[in-house]
Amino acid sequence: MRTRTTAGAAITAIALLALTGCTGASGPAPAATSEEVAPGFLALADESAPAGGELVVQVDYDTAEAAGLDPQAAATARSWMLEGLVYETLTTIDENLDVAPGLATSWETPSDTQYVFTLADDAVFSNGRPMTAADVVGSLQRLRDTPVTWTGQLGPIASIEATGDREVTVTLSEPYTPFLAALANTPAAILPMAEIEAGTVDITTEMLGTGPLVASAHRQDEQWTFVPNEHHPDAASLGFSILTVDIVGDEATRAAALRDGSADLAILNSTDSASLLSGAADVRVATQRNTDFHYLMINSIGGDPALADEKVRFALNSAIDREAINTLVFGGSTAVTGVTPAGLPDSCDPSMLPSTARDLAAAKSAIDAVGGLDLNLLVYTDEPVLAQIAQIIQQNLAEIDVKVSIEQVDYATYSGKVYADPSDFDLALSWFAGYADPSMVTTWWNPSLAGFSAVYMTGSNDLNAAIAAGASTPAGAERATALADVCDLADRQSEMVPLVLRPSTIGWNTAELSPTLTADEGYGNVLRHIAEFRVG
After folding, report:
1. What percent of the chain has pLDDT over 90?
2. What single-letter DSSP state applies at residue 239?
3. Comparing 12-16, 302-306, 395-399, 473-477, which segment has the lowest mean pLDDT?
4. CB 3.0–4.6 Å: which of 94, 113, 196, 457 could bond 495 by disulfide?
5. Angle (nearest 5°) at CA 98 between 490 and 447
6. Is the distance from CB of 472 to CB of 486 less than 8 angstroms?
7. Beta strand segments in 281-357, E
8. How far apart are CA 431 and CA 437, in angstroms?
């Protein structure tokens, strides 16, 4: 049977009953907490709790990819999470954000460019066909040959071949440290290649995977319904009989659903939701740390002409008070970060970045030299926290005589202005998924690799070389030094400016649901351990 990273073994059943469980006890819910019930976990499912009911989850937005439901084209955290219910990957990440076995039960690395994977012998697609080595080879080759966002994250693959009935060997053209972590996210899922090649399945409209669930119904931007994949090793032990995912854009509505019991679990984007639910019986709200982070784009190509000047951009960067963003917007629950997500091994220390000095006199001098600035700051309305961050930046930049006008638009309008060629904005706020390896997200600072950022930033040869060095250096002190160089160069060039980590706020009904939730997450997958959830 497959080796699985189950949380249930982390603490004893007695401790589980004491710490989590569906007790039904009433009382005021505490404020959002990041307190761990066991190392690496915000909650652990009680295996003795009642099970078999309907699990209702409310999320903020649906999949919205140009290629439909094709997981290889998935570019948003919600797509990764929802499609990850159906699809599985060769590797996964555990509660420590370390790479762990998935569809590959083990692997060997005969050299720093060769990976030999042993495949699970119990992986079966929901149509009843066992997964083969050909599915693995075909899936990775398809991703390698397709110009989608995740293609670049796979690294410099030279060859992919089946070297046994249950064995696949991948050879890289040069060392690439994040390779195993890159295989752990939904876009690297193993697909039913026999059916795809035969034309019997169109995975842009239908999902067919080896995961624990099967999508039985979907109304875009409204609702998903999932039922168990009867062929999955966990099918008999699932703690619920059906999963309903409601797409609810309004956060107050999601919070209300937790309060009245119409939702068992909800993703909440605001730390204010904890106080809104403070009097709700049987509701717990927790903050899950993420490697995701908010950042500011400073448009050096299509923005105000003065923004082509690195000194001007750095002046804006160095005027931003990131600790104020953490305190005033997130209640001190997150952390300042550089390009590499704070907290990951080998990530750079954000307190050592050149902008940290916040030399307002020097910044104002650079702005005065161009006669002052009047800039627009673009945010999208889907995430209210962006407007709150924008207000802090607006106040910060006023200190160096930069006038900022905040423009709030829907995401479609935002995307059209930011990612179109030519781009049409001065400043814009968004967030990146930080992943599970610190050198993965750095590639977005190389416009030729990222693609999407080429319309608003130029990058540099020096930064591109530093990014490549960070990705090829083995984990450890030498890589930490290489990644510090990436952070330093990106900070000085100030085209994409990291701000603070982006935590997830999760609420659940303790009277109905006993979930397993990790304290840290690298790919935005709140439902990573859903096979362990129990619903009374």
Report:
1. 83
2. B
3. 12-16
4. 457
5. 25
6. no
7. 283-290, 293-298
8. 17
Q: Rounded to whole angstroms, how far apart are CA atoms 435 and 296?
A: 19
Sequential DSSP letters for 373-440: EEEEEEEETT-HHHHHHHHHHHHHHHTTTEEEEEEEE-HHHHHHHHSSSS---SEEEEEE---SSTTT
Do 258 and 495 form a contact (C-beta atoms < 8 A)? Answer: no
Q: What is the Cα–Cα distance from 352 to 337, expressed in whole angstroms?
A: 11
Q: Give CA–CA dist 32/180, Å, rounded.
A: 33
**Measured between alpha carbons, how far is 61 from 456 in angstroms, rounded to an integer?**
26
Look at the block and give the residue holding tokens 């590959």: 104
Asked whether the beta carbons of 264 and 58 are under 8 A apart, the reply is no
Mean pLDDT for all residues in the chain: 92
C-alpha to C-alpha distance for 266 and 145, rounded to whole angstroms: 37
- CA-based nearest residue to 1, from 120, 136, 165, 124: 120
Confidence of residue 32 (pLDDT cuts 50, 70, 90): low
> With contact defined as beta carbons under 8 Å apart, do 477 and 229 qualify?
no
C-alpha distances out from residue 122 to 102, 107, 129, 138, 231, Å: 11, 17, 11, 19, 9
**Per-residue pLDDT tens over the stretch 107-128:** 999 999 999 999 999 999 999 9
pTM of the model: 0.90
For residue 422, say if its preceding peptide bond is cis, omega within 30 degrees of 0: yes
Residue 504 exposure: Cα atoms within 13 Å on the Cβ side: 27
Position 85 pLDDT exceeds 70: yes
Name residues whose C-beta falls within 8 Å of residue 462's C-beta, 6 or more positions apart in sequence: 489
**pLDDT tens-digit profile of 497-527?**
999 999 889 999 999 999 999 999 999 999 9
How confident is the model over 468-497, as a mean pLDDT? 98
Residue ranges of the alpha helices (H) in 56-132? 77-83
Please give the Cα distance from 24 to 462 (Å, whole number): 58
Within 8 A by CB and 6+ apart from 475, the residues are 177, 345, 346
Q: Per the structure block, which two tokens stand in for 121?
A: 């012998």
CB contact at 8 A, 336 and 318: no
Q: 309-344 pLDDT, tens per residue? A: 999 999 999 999 999 999 999 888 899 999 999 999
Q: CA 46, 49, 51: angle at the middle one, nearest 5?
A: 115
Position 446 pLDDT exceeds 80? yes
Kindly report, residue by residue over 396-426, the tens digit of the pLDDT.
Answer: 999 999 999 999 999 889 999 999 999 999 9
254: nearest Cα among 56, 471, 481: 56
Q: Is pLDDT above 50 for 184?
A: yes
In the chain, count H helices and then E strands.
Answer: 15, 23
Give pLDDT, residue 536: 81
Using a 10 angstrom Cβ sphere, with 0-12 exposed, 13-18 middle and 19 or more buried, the burial of residue 31 is middle
Q: Which residue carries 């060392």 as its tokens? A: 175
Instruction: Confirm if 467 and 474 have CB atoms less than 8 A apart.
Output: no
